[in-house]
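Quick one, probably user error.
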């Protein structure tokens, strides 16, 4: 159900959930200070309660409403990348509900770069807890249609068009002057290192922040997927198999009866990745063959999502 900004504010203030556009993927939002509203997010997504949520805020000024400290390093990252696809995991204030933090001592914060949602955050005055607006372990939505096909036509959606970045934010945990990457995204490690210096190299187990949501089985179409090291290996496998589909990078000849070619540029490919996987999933092929993107840092985030999409749940171990 498509709604406008006024409807969205009314629903959020009443403790309901609303799907909102961001530049990365659509989020399923609720008032982060309302424990019952936050519980509706977990129920709608069928998400385990031990997986914490990102709180979306309208500007850097709001960080200390949620975090107990905003270290100089975290401030530099915020200044460099907000509004934008970077989530900072910072020590939480005691008042932040355990439901949002899933019991962690930290809180994840992000100022998203989407005009519709920035206006919603500003005009409502709320901090919005919002995971991606899909059922747990399923594909993330990058259009209002994806949200409705995944969560049902009754879910209220603020339609902000197709997401421009297309994959989830980079997540960085910051402790004083140390940082660690918890989830790769289109803001890559080199860009973060340029602002924040080298990441913490030795993992101190006792102090290593968990990334509870980093289950291997994530971002997966319903159709089984298989990742191939090269286009030639994929082509050889596809030979004489009429029931397969393929996700390929760059131009090239047809390989299966159902090919989708993503652009050869990583940012362009990311912007279309989930839409392509949604389309491939709807083709009812017996297997989706996926070409591995180039083994360079610019493709790290896409490679991460594709490895997860192709992960065999039978072998899941986390
Ligand atoms: O781009 C995005 O980040 C999108 C849009 C909607 O902002 N959101 C998103 O949310 O991808 P979600 O819930 O699907 O993924 C958030 C990840 C989860 O893996 C969760 O475990 C992790 O962030 N996370 C949240 N709070 C955390 C915390 N305090 N410590 C460590 N990891 C945290
Ligand atoms: Mg998600």
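Nope, works fine. Designed sequence:
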């Amino acid at each position: 159900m498509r709604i406008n900004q006024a409807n969205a504010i009314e629903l959020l203030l009443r403790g309901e959930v609303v799907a909102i556009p961001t530049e990365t993927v659509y989020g399923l939002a609720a008032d982060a200070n309302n424990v019952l509203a936050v519980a509706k997010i977990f129920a709608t997504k069928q998400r385990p309660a031990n997986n914490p949520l990102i709180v979306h805020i309208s500007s850097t000024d709001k960080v200390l409403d949620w975090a107990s400290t905003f270290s100089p390093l975290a401030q530099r990252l915020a200044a460099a990348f907000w509004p934008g696809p970077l989530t900072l995991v910072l020590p939480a204030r005691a008042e932040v509900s355990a439901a949002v933090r899933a019991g962690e001592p930290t809180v994840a914060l992000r100022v998203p770069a989407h005009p519709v949602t920035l206006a919603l955050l500003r005009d409502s005055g709320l901090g919005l807890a919002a995971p991606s607006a899909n059922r747990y372990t399923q594909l993330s939505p990058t259009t209002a249609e994806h949200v409705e096909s995944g969560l049902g036509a009754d879910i209220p959606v603020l339609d902000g068009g197709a997401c421009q970045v297309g994959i989830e934010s980079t997540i960085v945990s910051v402790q004083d002057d140390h940082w660690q990457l918890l989830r790769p995204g289109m803001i890559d490690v080199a860009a973060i290192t340029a602002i924040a210096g080298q990441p913490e190299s030795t993992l101190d187990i006792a102090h290593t922040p968990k990334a509870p949501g980093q289950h291997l089985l994530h971002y997966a179409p319903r159709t089984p997927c298989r990742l191939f090291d090269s286009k030639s290996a994929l082509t050889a496998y596809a030979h004489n198999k009429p029931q397969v589909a393929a996700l390929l990078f760059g131009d090239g000849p047809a390989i299966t009866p159902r090919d989708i070619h993503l652009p050869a540029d990583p940012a362009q490919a990311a912007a279309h990745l989930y839409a392509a996987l949604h389309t491939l999933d709807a083709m009812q092929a017996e297997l989706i063959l996926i070409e591995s993107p180039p083994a360079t840092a610019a493709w790290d985030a896409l490679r991460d999502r594709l490895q997860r999409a192709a992960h065999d749940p039978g072998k899941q171990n986390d």
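The chain has two domains: 2-207, 225-309.
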